[in-house]
Amino acid sequence: MATPAFNYGSDVTGLVWGFLLQDAAQAVSVDAKEAETWLHAPVPGQFVWLHFNLSNAASERWLRAHAGLPEEFYETLHQGSRSTRIEMADGALIAVVNDVLHNFSVDTAEISTLWVHVTPHGVITARRKPLESIERLRQDVLNGAPLRSSVELLVHLLRDQADVLVNIVRDAVARVDTAEDQLLAGRLTRRREDLGALRRVLVRLQRLLAPEPAALFRLLQRPPSWVAPEDRQELRQSTEEFTVVLSDLAALHERIKLLQEEIAARVNEDNNRSLFLLTIVTVMALPINLIAGLLGMNVGGVPLSQHPHGFWLVLGFTALVTGAIAWLLLRLQRPH
User: Which regions span the lipid bilayer (predicted)?
Assistant: First the structure.
């Protein structure tokens, strides 16, 4: 019996969705065949956005056969480095953007990579897992967001990614506020472990999502000639906005670090107090154990063994010595 082929959420070519866009016009959905025809004969004033799923092996074959992308793009797909960056290659923009998965949770911190190729007449994006920012961008395009150029679509993607990161930071701030309130109330519970896990997640996000400053600086200083001045300005602004979000992320990371240190100091203080109390009890019990050991020896000549009030005399002496030791210890603990 024949079984249906698994398409990984895309068509047989690996295309997840495609749109034909132009300034001040509603986006038009296109399939792989229509996109192939348009790529061979681009229409001035229009650009196409094609989004591929790399989990489908047919997507890379289709791109090599019809998209005309430079070899640097395919090398980037298979590189081990996943640092976020935007570079120029053969007059086009190649961007490597790390993003959180769709329906992201701070507890799991799942992150994947999106590869973007931008030219004046087209934007090609490719990913292996569904991502949050690219899904937001698709919804905006379907809702009629005005996109006058391919670079503006890239800028929109970067801003959507910044918005996603802002929501993550807000969620993390709410968790840190809760932990801080419980710390002030004296209820530590498991907040130290939770803060440690949250701190590791934020460090990973900051390491993967922070763009390479050198690559962005080179691009903003010498962008491609086909990039309009207003698109250059928007790209610079989106970079600055993303830098502000990363600064907030770094500040939150430092706040968590200080909160962890405060919790650790309080835990150490409680442990020292418990250890000191245990030491006092042990020292106070030392005379009792010593006298009981001496009087319990099974030898002759034990004092007061025949005295009618010997037990009470030993008990009173023991209580006196114990009280004196307790008074001395408490006096030593008083501030001078």
Answer: 275-297, 309-330
| Same-domain pairing of 133 and 167 | yes
The CA distance from 221 to 172, in Å, is 35
Q: What angle do CA 93, 94, 97 make, to 5 degrees?
A: 125
Q: What is the pLDDT along the chain (336 residues), one digit of tens a residue?
A: 333 444 446 788 889 999 988 876 788 898 889 988 888 888 888 889 999 998 888 888 999 988 888 888 888 888 765 677 888 888 888 888 887 776 666 656 677 888 999 988 889 999 888 888 888 888 888 888 888 888 888 888 888 888 878 888 888 888 888 877 877 777 665 566 777 778 887 887 777 777 666 667 777 778 888 888 888 888 888 877 777 888 888 888 888 888 888 888 888 888 888 888 888 888 878 888 887 777 777 777 777 777 788 788 888 888 888 888 888 877 777 765
Cβ neighbour number for residue 151 with a 10 Å cutoff: 25
